[in-house]
Amino acid sequence: MNKKINIVGTGNVASHIALALNNCGFAINSIVGRNRQKVESLAQKIGAKPLSKASSDTENEIFIVSVSDSAIPEVISSISSNNTVLHTSGSVSIEVLSRFKNHGVFYPLYSFVADQNVRWSEVPFLFEWNNSISESVLISIAHQCDFNFHEVDSLARSRYHLSAVFSHNFVNFIIAASQEYIYQNSLDFKILVPILKQLIDNANTHQDLHQLQTGPALRGNIDILEKHLSMLDDFPIYQDVYLQMTKWIEMFHNSLKI
């Protein structure tokens, strides 16, 4: 694939993608972004041109737009419609790119953290394209970088994104609460790691995790619930989380009995 690739954005997703594409042999033409320091830093790492705005006179190039969802319309407004434009959002429809003849979605379903190594072979990419040209661009990138990809439409992608918020973002907050409580009480968090691994193993092997729910909320063990809540008096936010989660578990499982 001979088309020039431009990365629009300098956040965690944009930075990881730029470095990954560079590492698997793609020459990145430019890094585009508003934060001059970040743009120049990322561009220098991969030998790209630092730009504050996408040039309107480019033709037949590839722009991978990796910015906040709300910024996409403004950012793409300066890009010529004769380019191939891809966005990396999990929740924004492909239709936002409809004025471009060739367009698509290049969404990695993963939580990117600055300076954290990514095992790209394990990251699922959700692709969507509007024609054979954007399809060819996306698949060429995936094959050269050995990315694992799935073709899904915008509705399915938004549903995967929502599910990822439940299974990663919310779960991360819950585990962080557990971690903080353990450390604040001078205990060893590693003792909890096996039960966390069990949770992931169960998710890989069972289609209905509700059937594996255990704990005092499911059993209706009031004494234990009240004891736990009192133990969280110094952690009012986590106390509220505990209380709400208990109520939701009770409500859900009680609804199954009706």
**How many strands appear in the DSSP assignment?**
8
Instruction: Report the β-strand fraction as a percent range.
Output: 5-15%
The structural domain count equals 2
CATH topology description of the largest domain: Rossmann fold
Report the sheet with the most strands, covering strand number, pairing sense and barrel closure.
8 strands, mixed
Succession of helices and strands: EHEHEEHEEEHEHHHHH
Outline the secondary-structure elements.
Blueprint: E1 5-8, H1 12-23, E2 28-32, H2 36-46, E3 49-51, E4 62-65, H3 72-76, E5 84-87, E6 102-108, E7 124-129, H4 132-145, E8 148-151, H5 154-184, H6 193-205, H7 216-219, H8 222-231, H9 236-257
Parallel strand pairs: 1-2, 1-4, 2-3, 4-5, 5-6, 7-8
Antiparallel strand pairs: 6-7
If you had to describe this structure to a student in words, what would you say it looks like?
The protein has helices spanning 12-23, 36-46, 72-76, 132-145, 154-184, 193-205, 216-219, 222-231, 236-257; strands at residues 5-8, 28-32, 49-51, 62-65, 84-87, 102-108, 124-129, 148-151. Helices cover 47% and strands 14% of the residues. It folds into 2 domains: 5-152, Rossmann fold (3-Layer(aba) Sandwich); 158-257, N-(1-d-carboxylethyl)-l-norvaline Dehydrogenase, domain 2. By secondary structure, the protein is an alpha/beta fold. The protein has an 8-stranded mixed β-sheet.
